[in-house]
């Protein structure tokens, strides 16, 4: 039987859990041991989020490559829009 708990959470789930964890820790109601456990979980979630962002950035770079050269273009929401 496969364990689902071993599966890495997606970015949005990890970020939401991290935000809830930070809020809980900021309240200051946790014991030292609980705080350390929550901090360790926060580090895991942060690393997971960073990895997801790096993977997304790599995918974007691959999609934007043209003829083996990067061709990054300004974001459409930037000041100068081409007509």
Question: Would you write up a description of this structure?
Answer:
This protein has 83 residues and is mostly helical. The chain has a domain at 11-66: Exonuclease VII, small subunit (Helix Hairpins, Orthogonal Bundle), CATH 1.10.287. The protein contains 2 helices and 2 strands, in the order ααββ. Strands 1-2 form a two-stranded antiparallel ribbon. A hairpin with a 2-residue loop joins β1 and β2. α1 packs antiparallel against α2. The longest helix is centred in the middle third of the chain and has 33 residues, at 32-64.
Q: Kindly report the name of the CATH homologous superfamily of one domain.
A: Exonuclease VII, small subunit
Order of secondary-structure elements? HHEE
- CATH architecture heading of one domain: Orthogonal Bundle
Number of strands: 2
Unreliable parts: 1-5
Number of helices: 2
Distance between the termini: 57 Å
Note the beta-strand portion.
Answer: under 5%
**Share of helix, binned:** 55-70%
Radius of gyration: 19 Å
Q: In terms of structural class, how would the helical and strand content be classed? A: mainly alpha
Q: The CATH topology of one domain, please? A: Helix Hairpins
What does this entry show, briefly?
The protein is mainly α and 83 residues long.
List keywords for this structure.
single chain, 83 residues, mainly alpha, Helix Hairpins, two-stranded antiparallel sheet, 2 helices, disordered N terminus
Record the SSE blueprint.
Blueprint: H1 11-26, H2 32-64, E1 65-66, E2 69-70
Antiparallel strand pairs: 1-2
């Amino acid at each position: 039987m496969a364990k689902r708990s071993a599966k890495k959470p997606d970015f949005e789930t990890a970020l939401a859990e991290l935000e809830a964890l930070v809020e809980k820790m900021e309240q200051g109601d946790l014991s030292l041991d609980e705080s350390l456990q929550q901090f360790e979980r926060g580090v895991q979630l942060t690393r997971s989020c960073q990895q997801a962002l790096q993977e997304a950035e790599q995918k974007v770079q691959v999609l934007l490559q043209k003829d083996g050269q990067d061709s990054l273009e300004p974001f459409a929401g930037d000041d100068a829009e081409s007509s």
